[in-house]
Amino acid sequence: MRILYVALDQRVPGTTGGAVHVAAVAEGLAALGHDVDVLTGAGVGPFPAGARWHPLEPAFGLRYLRMLRAPEVQAFAVRVQAEIIIERYYNFGGEGMQAARATGALGVLEVNAPVVDYPGSAKGRLDRALLVQPMRRWRDWQCRSAGLIVTPTAAILPDFVPRDRILELEWGADTDRFHPNATGPLPFARPADGLVAVFAGAFRVWHGAINLVRAVRSLRERRRTDLTAVLIGDGPELARVRAEASGVPGITFTGAVPHDRMPACLAAADIGVAPFDLEAHPPMQLAFYWSPLKIFEYMAAGLPVVAPAIDRLSAIVRSGEQGLLYDSNAPGALAACLERLLDDASLRTRLGACARARVISEFSWTAHCQHLDRAFRRAVEARTDSCVS
C-alpha cells in the first residue's frame, strides 16, 4: 500500500521518543513491503533507510502553525497517490486528516497524548470560556475524520470514538540494535567495581529522574557505594535534578546522546530505572498514557527494569519476572529495589534475560508494525465492503 506519514513537528533523526517512533514505524512499514513517504523535519544526520523522506516543518518552526502546511500536505498526498495517510496527533494539527478527506485515503490518527481534557485543565477552562469550545470541536473533528486511531490507551480518546476504530498498541524497541552485547563509544566511564543504574529520558518532571538521585543518596548514606547512576538526556528538569545530585558521589550526567549510541550505553549498564512520577503531571489523572520507549529499550538490552507499580507498566513489566516494581508512595521503595538487585546477581541475570525474551516476542518495532499492517488491511477492506454494499 502507498502510505504517507505526516509528522511535521518531529525532527528525524533525533534523540526524542517521538523522533525514534517516527523512524521506527516508517522503516518497519517499508520493510513489510509498503511504499512509504514521510513528511517531517530534518534532524542532524541523514534520514534512515527504507522509506522516502521529505523535509517539511511547521510554518516558522512552530507546532501550533502546522495547519498552514495543509495545502502542501494535500498536494503531496495527491502526487504520491496515498492510499493511507498517518498523522501524529496534535491539538493544532489536522493537516493529515484534511488531506485524507480530500483524497479519499484512509486517515490514521496516531494519538500519543490526551485528546480529552483532564480535570482542571487550564486549556479546557479557556475553551469553555470561548463558549463554542473551538479547540474541543477541532479535536473531535480530527477523531471523527480518522478511519483508524492508534494509541497506547483508549482512555485518552473521546467516548464517541467506536471501539472498532481504535487500535491500542504499545511502542517498542529495535531488538537488533539494542542487545546485551552492543558496543560503541560511551559518554561515561564504567566503574571498576560495583553496578551501574541507568536513566534515559527527556528530563520532564513526570519522568521522575530526581527520584533516582534521591535513591542513590539514600544508599550512599547507608554506605552502599557499590551502585553508581548514569542519567542520559536533556530537558527542562535537568538543572533541578543536577542541583539535587550536588554533593552525591557516583552520579553522572551525560546530556543528550544520539539514538544510535544508546544501545552501547544501555549494554554497559546493569539496571534500567524508569522512576515515573504521575502526580507531577496533571494529565496523568486520565491514565498513564505514555508508551515508555526507555523501558522497551532497557528490556531489549537485557536489563532488569525498576519502575513504579502503576497501570500499564505492570502489564509491560511483570514484577519478579522482567524487573521489580515498587509502591511510589512508600518511602525508600525505589532504593530498596535497587539494593535488592545489588545483592542478588542471579536475580539480575534472570530478570534481564526474561525482559529481553519478552520484548523480542511482544514489544519489538517489528511486532508493532505487523500489528499496524494487519489493522490497516482490515480498515481498508471494511471501507471497500461498505462501498460495495
Alpha-carbon Rg, integer? 22 Å
Helix content: 25-40%
Averaged pLDDT: 94
What sequence of helices (H) and strands (E) makes up the elements? Answer: EHEEHEHEHHEEEHEHEHEHEHEHHH
Q: Could you characterize the architecture of this molecule?
A:
With 389 residues, this protein is α/β, with parallel strands linked by helices. The protein has two domains: 2-171 and 364-388, Rossmann fold (3-Layer(aba) Sandwich); 195-362, 3-Layer(aba) Sandwich (Rossmann fold). Helix content is 38%, strand content 17%. It contains 13 helices and 13 strands. The protein has helices at 17-31, 70-80, 95-103, 122-129, 134-145, 209-221, 238-245, 262-267, 293-300, 313-316, 333-343, 345-362, 365-388; strands spanning 2-12, 35-42, 52-55, 84-88, 106-110, 148-151, 166-168, 195-200, 227-232, 251-255, 271-273, 305-308, 323-326. The strands form two sheets. The chain has a seven-stranded parallel sheet, sandwiched between helices. A six-stranded parallel sheet has the order 10-9-8-11-12-13, sandwiched between helices.
Task: Please describe the topology of this protein.
Layout: E1 2-12, H1 17-31, E2 35-42, E3 52-55, H2 70-80, E4 84-88, H3 95-103, E5 106-110, H4 122-129, H5 134-145, E6 148-151, E7 166-168, E8 195-200, H6 209-221, E9 227-232, H7 238-245, E10 251-255, H8 262-267, E11 271-273, H9 293-300, E12 305-308, H10 313-316, E13 323-326, H11 333-343, H12 345-362, H13 365-388
Helix pairs in contact: 1-13, 2-3, 6-7, 6-11, 9-12
